[in-house]
């Protein structure tokens, strides 16, 4: 049976671990209805994990006993940064969830010329990413940046080995064998000619995902999967 996984800011080197995280206690006790003696997987967010048993409950804390320590070897070796224009709430949350499940290391919201929604709820997006990491078996939660302008995103991308911007008019299909990749996904209204030109000046490749026109959230998910596989 697959064990429930929890990513926590805890020192897994200790044999007994106490957490006073009320949200965690509620999830384990009232949502999942786990009992004393049940096993879970604990992760410290840095690929270190442990199989632990629930030793005791109280109203304000939960105690785990470490049974076995190991390293999570399922994290992707490629480092993918997804620069995605801010989309409508439910669409952007879908991108966060699925990009996390796929294995993206960082998600950078962008305010582009055609971006309609300008702000994000970072706390909610981080919660979605955490839950998606736990559900998918990851031990690392991707970094979600505060929104950047398109120019700031271009500057940030200079640290990547290769960068790609997706455009429906592009002739070249997306492919990369690099390990540190930046992927730029535009808003519902697409990129402006000026933005495409600015990307080209930085030697960012203009690429396509095929002949069909994909929704922005679909393009973000598909391109992330291709980049990692």
Automatic annotation (TrEMBL):
Residues of the Ribosomal RNA small subunit methyltransferase E methyltransferase domain: 76-223
Molecular functions per Gene Ontology: rRNA (uridine-N3-)-methyltransferase activity
Keywords attached to this entry: Cytoplasm, Methyltransferase, rRNA processing, S-adenosyl-L-methionine, Transferase
Keyword RNA-binding: no
Pfam families: Methyltrans_RNA, PUA_4
Annotated Ribosomal RNA small subunit methyltransferase E PUA-like domain residues: 28-67
Cell location: Cytoplasm
EC number: 2.1.1.193
Catalysis: reaction(s): uridine(1498) in 16S rRNA + S-adenosyl-L-methionine = N(3)-methyluridine(1498) in 16S rRNA + S-adenosyl-L-homocysteine + H(+)
Main location: cytoplasm
GO terms under biological process: rRNA base methylation
Entries under CDD domains matching the protein: RsmE-like (cd18084)
GO CC, any one term: cytoplasm
InterPro entries: Alpha/beta_knot_MTases, PUA-like_sf, RsmE, RsmE_MTase_dom, RsmE_PUA-like, tRNA_m1G_MTases_N
Family named by the database record: Belongs to the RNA methyltransferase RsmE family.
PANTHER family: 16S RRNA (URACIL(1498)-N(3))-METHYLTRANSFERASE, RIBOSOMAL RNA SMALL SUBUNIT METHYLTRANSFERASE E
NCBIfam families, alphabetized: RsmE family RNA methyltransferase
Function recorded in the entry: Specifically methylates the N3 position of the uracil ring of uridine 1498 (m3U1498) in 16S rRNA. Acts on the fully assembled 30S ribosomal subunit.
Protein name: Ribosomal RNA small subunit methyltransferase E
Organism, as annotated: Candidatus Liptonbacteria bacterium CG11_big_fil_rev_8_21_14_0_20_35_14
Lineage: Bacteria, Candidatus Liptoniibacteriota
């Amino acid at each position: 049976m697959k064990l429930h996984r929890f990513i926590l800011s805890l020192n897994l080197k200790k044999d007994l671990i106490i957490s006073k995280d009320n949200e965690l206690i509620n999830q384990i006790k009232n949502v999942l209805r786990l009992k004393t003696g049940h096993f879970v997987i604990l992760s410290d967010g840095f690929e270190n994990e442990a199989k632990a048993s629930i030793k005791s409950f109280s109203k304000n804390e939960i105690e785990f006993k470490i049974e076995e320590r190991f390293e999570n070897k399922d994290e992707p070796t490629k480092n993918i940064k997804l620069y995605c224009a801010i989309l409508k709430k439910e669409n952007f949350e879908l991108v966060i969830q699925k990009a996390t499940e796929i294995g993206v290391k960082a998600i950078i919201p962008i305010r582009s010329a055609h971006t309609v929604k300008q702000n994000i709820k970072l706390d909610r997006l981080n919660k979605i990413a955490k839950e998606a990491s736990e559900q998918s078996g990851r031990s690392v939660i991707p970094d979600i940046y505060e929104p950047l302008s398109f120019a700031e995103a271009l500057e940030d991308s200079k640290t990547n080995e290769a960068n790609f911007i997706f455009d429906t008019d592009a002739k070249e299909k997306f492919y990369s064998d690099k390990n540190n990749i930046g992927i730029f996904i535009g808003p519902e209204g697409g990129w402006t000619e000026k933005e495409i030109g600015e990307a080209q000046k930085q030697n960012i490749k203009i690429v396509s995902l095929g002949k069909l026109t994909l929704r922005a959230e679909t393009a973000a998910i598909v391109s992330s999967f291709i980049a990692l596989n």
